[in-house]
Please model this.
Amino acid sequence: MKSASFDYIRPDTLDAVCACLASHPDARIIAGGQSLVPMLAMRLARPSLVIDIAHIDGLSAIRDDDSAVVIGAMVRQAKALSDPLVAKHLPLLAKALTHVGHPPTRARGTVGGSLVHADPSAEIPLVAVTLGASLRMRDAGEDVEFHAEEFFIGPMLTMTPPTACLFEICFAKPTCAYVGTGFHEVAARRSDYALAAAAAHIEADDAGVVQDLRLAIGGISDFPQRLPIDIHIDLSAGMADLGTSLTTAIDAALDDVDIVEDMHASASYRRRVAAELARRAVDDALREIAQDLS
Amino acid sequence: MNITIDINGKDVTAAIEPRVTLLDFVRDVAGLKGTHAGCEHGVCGACTVLLDGEAVRSCLILAAQAEGSQITTIEAVDGTTRQPGELSIIQDAFCESHGLQCGYCTPGMVLAAKTLLQHNPTPSREQVRDAISGNICRCTGYVQIIDAIMLAAERLQGRNQPADGA
Model:
């Protein structure tokens, strides 16, 4: 499989990338290339110009920005996975990254590239939606920001303006005393596309009362979505027995999700698996907090 | 466009089309056929090479993107000091454990193993499975490949110990 011909350019500023996108409306940006190059090879993408952003200064760093961890658009998944700031403040991202591709694709693939590629079954967009990340882009000389929950609008469809280039992703740090996370997915093979995935990030205060419960599912619909769960959980006396309240809440939330089906899995299978994975993700997160409290 | 890539310690320069992948550059420009072309869209792992010491899929990298990086192929898996035909410890372990049959996936498996053992000299079988999870083998059923990598790990550990145990 060989790609069709294209031109290749390596700008050294973000504004130059925007100018290339303006002059070549069908141009594609390449970061790690782990999603774009297969699409080129299969000729699902036939851009006239490929714009390599690897040579723009400042896109490869992960920085501590007081209340947030900011990940540059060229940060490789392998680097994020081994980064101490990510491990300390974004445990959900660290957990999810082990499910992203394989070690050789993580060595090249970027956190930002996975977000703008927006595969509905990809893990990083699911984490971004769960954590409410912001995507910062450069467009026509200005910086624009998108919230992850509004950014994904369909399978491989995002709000990215035609001439914009992502330069960093901002993840807010947890604000409560205790944090627990859970991430589960089911795929045909290890690290293959998830048929269903669930991510949970839960924060509890000093007393062990849950203040923030964020749950989202991926792989079962056109883009990752939050499942609103409104249950009072008190972990001060150890792991709480939620009875059926959690499964009932997950079920009710899944009623509002438009679940897809394809040759790999029916909609009913995806729904059942997603409900169970969501329950396990929340369970893992609560257990982590309960353990830290004891 | 003119591209120069350091492959196994030698600069290789050629005028190529931007669409040429690192895989095609290694095989067709540098003439190193040990790197195998399998699926050519990032699924099988046969084209694995080391880029700055890390296993990557050469079919998923444009040659232009690899400029300025150091590429190591299976031909130089253990440096360039060995004679042609002389095997590295990992390759030897694959032979002894019957970790290959047709051999098509083997260069990729060996390089994936090399990266793993660099980061983790004493992996568990589960960690070995994870490290080669992106490399497809249609012959062995993987068990002997995992055996081979475990054997290589053991041998690389014992490398600097005197033979008599003194």
